[in-house]
Design goal:
Blueprint: H1 5-11, E1 17-19, E2 22-24, E3 31-36, E4 41-47, H2 51-69, H3 73-89, H4 91-102, H5 106-126, E5 132-134, E6 142-150, E7 153-157, H6 163-177, E8 180-184, H7 191-202, E9 210-212, H8 217-225, E10 230-236, H9 239-249, E11 255-259, E12 264-268, H10 274-286, E13 296-302, H11 306-319, H12 339-354, E14 358-359, E15 376-379, H13 386-389, E16 396-402, H14 405-413, E17 420-424, H15 428-437, E18 442-445, E19 464-465, H16 470-475, E20 478-486
Parallel strand pairs: 7-8, 7-10, 8-9, 10-11, 12-13, 12-17, 13-16, 15-16, 17-18
Antiparallel strand pairs: 1-2, 3-4, 5-6, 6-20, 11-19, 14-15
Helix pairs in contact: 2-8, 3-5, 3-6, 3-7, 4-5, 5-6
């Protein structure tokens, strides 16, 4: 029977790193506690490394690259498919780990696990399709074509909010392309990611092809970027950190694939189906306790339905139950990841109140509530307030009225970010205008869940570079070689 992270937790053992095919506790025997955000109870200890672990993992991935990149696409596809099957088989246990370490609802944890598995299935199929092109030559004495080759070792650096699915949508295409991997997930939520790598090992992945390390983000990221074997940095996180990684990567001209911060507008027009719009907003705002890069951040409501929508939103939030996602009672919202996140969301709320905003319902702060916050909407915040300009990353959003389409498009685009956006309207011509004019890389029109594995996901402006998912996501780990062949005519 394979050793699982759950078995390690039950035995009180340290959760190890994976380097060169070996599960290692840590070169320096450093440990880091992982806590449950419901009550800050310690649930695990992970091996916590530094520069030496990052360098060793990169060394192992570099050594494994030649053999892995020369395997057949069928061989790589079979391993990815088996990984997909194993993740599905273990979805309930992995989903519970996700809920335990992040505070997300159990249904969301299991759903994220199943969604993560789909990346391995999809890319196992995609890599067996043609990769390259034969050009229609204008010169009979030459034939021209392009082929693709894996770029090298991929460093996958990911956050805590969707720790499993974000790693999966990087690791699956990287391995499919023939790259080897060094993954560094957030130490706040490392447990489910460990299970992903156990599935890869159990699926028969050769030693050194995929490596998993834990340690200080800046120290290990810097060590990886400076390693000669690293060919691409795939990072999901804040815009300032992504910008800093780009600057360092420029020293070696290392490719960067970046999914960064969001400030998503959610627009409700008067001709929309209001019931669907409110139901969609509940998902787009409160999924993962509001801690999503594509979460609705600024809600724009047309003047004529403002009172009606605000009344509905107040009822929505007052009916939502908060509590332990793994407790005995059903809840709608779990805790934020930690107290620092609570403080930052509270700061944004207080700034909005100081600017003249008011809450629809109760204050979001729960007295003696550990890391819990009530869901809420603030109305009439100033346009230059933090609520209108910053990514909230919590169960709070601002509600702003607008009078016409041009106005709301201008205000929706008035941000340095451009990751996701949403709009509800039954005007088909308007749908196309919004699709063209809203400055976002991901747009949900009359739908709150745009993410699917076979679509290209990524942002505009300060929200990143490159795309993940779909064929575009595979291209992030490939480079194109152009070939021109001279032909002698008889």
């Amino acid at each position: 029977m394979a050793i699982t992270t759950r078995a390690l937790l039950d035995a009180g053992a340290v959760v190890p790193m994976l380097i060169g095919g070996e599960w290692v506790p840590s070169f320096a025997s450093n440990l880091r506690e992982v806590t449950n955000p419901v009550d800050d109870r310690v649930i695990a200890q992970i091996a916590y490394g530094g520069v030496s672990e990052a360098q060793s993992a990169a060394d192992q991935a570099t050594a494994a690259f030649e053999s892995w990149s020369n395997t057949s696409s069928r061989y790589r596809a079979d391993i990815l498919w088996r990984t997909y099957e194993l993740i599905l088989e273990r979805a309930d246990e992995i989903g519970a780990l996700l809920s335990l370490e992040t505070g997300k609802l159990l249904s969301e944890g299991i759903g994220e696990t199943r969604f993560s598995a789909e990346y391995f299935r999809w890319f196992s199929e995609e890599i067996r399709r043609p990769q390259g092109e034969v050009f229609a030559s204008e010169d009979r004495s030459r034939k021209q074509l392009s082929i693709s080759r894996p770029i090298g070792v991929a460093a996958t650096l990911t956050p805590w909010n969707f720790p499993l699915s974000i790693q999966a949508r990087k690791v699956a295409p990287a391995l499919a392309a023939g790259c080897t991997v060094v993954a560094r997930p957030s130490e706040k939520a490392p447990l489910a990611v460990g299970e992903l790598f156990r599935a890869l090992v159990d699926a028969g992945l050769p030693p050194g092809v995929a490596n998993l390390i834990y340690g200080p983000a800046s120290i290990q990221s810097n060590a990886l970027i400076d390693h000669d074997g690293i060919g691409v940095i795939s990072f999901t996180g804040s815009t300032p950190v992504g910008s800093a990684l780009m600057r360092q990567a420029s020293n070696r001209i290392v490719r960067c694939a970046l999914e960064l911060g969001g400030d998503a507008p959610y627009i409700i027009f008067s001709d929309a189906n209001i019931d669907r719009a409110i139901e969609g907003l509940a998902i787009a705002k409160f999924r993962n306790n509001g801690q999503s890069c594509i979460a609705a951040n600024r809600v724009f409501v047309e003047d004529s339905i403002m009172d009606q929508v605000c009344e509905r939103l107040a009822k929505l939030t007052s009916s939502m139950r908060i509590g332990d996602p793994l407790g005995h009672e059903r809840v709608d919202l779990g805790p934020l990841i930690d107290s620092s996140r609570v403080r930052d969301v509270d700061r944004i709320c207080r700034d909005a109140l100081d600017s003249g905003a008011s809450f629809l319902g109760e204050s979001p702060i729960v007295p003696d509530g550990a890391n819990f916050m009530r869901p809420g909407f603030l109305v009439d915040a100033a346009f230059d307030s933090a609520l209108a300009k910053e990514e909230v990353f919590g169960p709070i959003a601002g509600v702003f009225s607008f009078s016409d389409e041009d106005e709301v498009i201008h205000r929706a685009n008035d941000t340095k970010m451009g990751l996701a956006g949403y709009a509800y309207t039954n005007n088909q011509s308007r749908i196309w205008r919004l699709a063209e004019k809203l400055e976002v890389g991901i747009l949900g029109l009359n739908h709150p869940l745009p993410s699917v594995v076979y679509s290209p996901m990524g942002g505009l402006k300060g929200s990143g570079l490159g795309r993940e998912g779909a064929h575009d996501g595979l291209l992030e780990y490939l480079e194109t070689k152009y070939i021109s062949i001279g032909i002698e005519e008889k």
